[in-house]
Write a structure and sequence with these properties.
By secondary structure, the protein is of the alpha/beta class. It folds into 2 domains: about 15-185, 3-Layer(aba) Sandwich (Rossmann fold); about 185-385, Up-down Bundle (Dehydroquinate synthase-like, alpha domain), CATH 1.20.1090.10. It has 14 helices and 9 strands. Strands 1-9-6-4-2-3 form a 6-stranded parallel sheet, sandwiched between helices. Strands 5-8-7 form a 3-stranded mixed sheet. A hairpin with a 4-residue loop joins strand 7 (about 155-160) and strand 8. Helix 6 runs parallel beside helix 8 (about 240-260) and helix 10 (about 280-295) crosses helix 14 (about 375-385). The longest helix is centred in the middle third of the chain and has 23 residues, at about 215-235. The structure holds fe (ii) ion (FE2). Fe (ii) ion binds near residues 146, 198 and 202. Fe (ii) ion binds next to helix 6 and helix 10. It comes from Marinobacter nitratireducens. InterPro entries: ADH_Fe/GldA, ADH_Fe_C, ADH_Fe_CS, Alcohol_dehydrogenase_Fe. Belongs to the iron-containing alcohol dehydrogenase family.
Length: about 375
């Protein structure tokens, strides 16, 4: 009997506590891991918003010491991971907590790997490279978009190669994720838009990925539906707790989908932009999205029809080219309404960067699950369209 493994699908997820106030259970979970000294990773902006001090207070009340590390830049660098791991070891910490956006969370994942294994973080690039279990990890996301809090990805920048590399492993799925919409209330409208569109990209790429399947499809479609309906109203009223919760839920579902179905060309190309030119991840994705959809559409027509339906487009009786046009129009309209209209050239990308960018994009693991096989020339053309 033949055994075809290409149709097998797996699903990994952290233990999730979702809802307003869930962050306040951080000390209970840390205690359950036997924490005596927590290594708390964040960034200066999140600390200035007061969220770091609240976590320190909660841990202190439970008799747990903390060492705080906020030396994380927007695209976390390999040397920041190494510095964090040194401090973790010197402070004799035993559990890692991170509160922040994708950057502190990815940095915390890297710190955990290096703190137990000892080698350079650069040696863990790729899929399933971690053989020593990292310390217990509790993540508290403060943005609704990156989904590092549920994913088996850690994305780290290597400034020497000007390259953002991916670590993909079940070992970087956190043990606990405290997903609390209240902490996203300090995000401004622009960051809300960038991270919200990033979550939309996660959901669309996961749904059309060659790794998609029944375990991830429902999460991806629900995320698309929620973001399509709630992101514009949230940008109009960023303090609305109901809308914050809807977008946080969408981000979580998109994260569960892409962590397991993996992504596609938008992420391969935006990781390349982020590594080469140190540009913000969500914005890069937003600027590339409709161009990649146009490129991919004919390779996954039925999947894109279902994406269009999740975006409330009534596709009954429509021809395939018509569905493609309506879907692209809706994506462009959504981006415009949330204020993300720039083109890559306005971020400082030039025609002469495109060969480098395309070469790096083809080395990114996310390109492997893109529904359309991509050559160097294909990727160059899509960058040119987005310029
Ligand atoms: Fe992303």
């Amino acid at each position: 009997m033949s055994h075809d493994i290409s149709s097998l699908r797996k699903f990994v997820s952290p233990e999730i506590v979702f809802g307003a106030g869930s962050r306040k259970s951080v000390a209970n979970f840390a205690s359950n891991f036997g924490a005596r000294h927590v290594f708390l990773v964040s960034d200066p902006g999140v600390a200035a918003a007061g969220w770091v001090q609240e976590i320190i207070d909660l841990l202190t009340e439970a008799g747990i010491r903390t060492t705080v590390f906020t030396g994380v830049s927007p695209n976390p660098k390999a040397e920041e991971v190494m510095a964090g791991a040194e401090l973790y070891k010197a402070s004799e910490c035993d559990v890692i907590v991170a509160i922040g956006g994708g950057s502190p969370m990815d940095c915390a994942k890297g710190i955990g790997i290096v703190a137990t294994d000892g080698r350079s973080i650069l040696e863990f690039e790729g899929v399933d490279t971690i053989t020593t279990p990292p310390p217990p990890l509790i993540l508290i996301p403060t943005t609704a978009g990156t989904s590092a809090d549920v994913s088996q990805f850690a994305i780290i920048s290597d400034p020497d190669r000007r390259f953002k590399f991916s670590i993909i492993s079940k070992a970087v799925v956190p043990d606990v994720s405290l997903i609390d919409p209240q902490v996203t209330e300090t995000m401004d409208a622009y960051l809300t838009a960038c991270t919200g569109v990033d979550a939309m990209v996660h959901a669309i790429e996961a749904f059309v990925s060659t790794g998609s399947g029944p375990l991830t499809d429902t999460h991806a479609l629900e995320a698309i539906r929620l973001i399509n309906r709630n992101l514009e109203p949230l940008i109009q009223n960023t303090a609305d707790p109901y809308l914050r919760e809807q977008i946080m839920l969408a981000s979580m579902q998109a994260g569960l989908a892409f962590s397991n179905a993996i992504l596609g060309a938008v992420h391969a190309m935006s990781h390349s932009l982020g590594g080469f030119l140190d540009l913000p991840h969500g914005l890069c994705n937003a600027l590339l999205l409709e161009h990649v959809v146009a490129y991919n559409f004919n390779s996954a027509e039925d999947r894109f029809r279902r994406v269009a339906e999740a975006m409330d487009i009534d596709t009954r009786g429509m021809s395939k080219p018509e569905i493609k046009k309506r879907l692209m129009n809706r994506i462009v309209e959504l981006k415009k309404k949330v204020g993300l209209e720039a083109r890559l050239a306005q971020l400082g990308v030039t025609v002469s960067d495109i060969p480098h960018l395309s070469g790096f994009a083809l080395q990114d693991p996310c390109i492997l699950t893109n529904p359309r096989k991509s050559s160097l020339r294909d990727v160059q053309v899509v960058y040119e369209e987005a310029l």
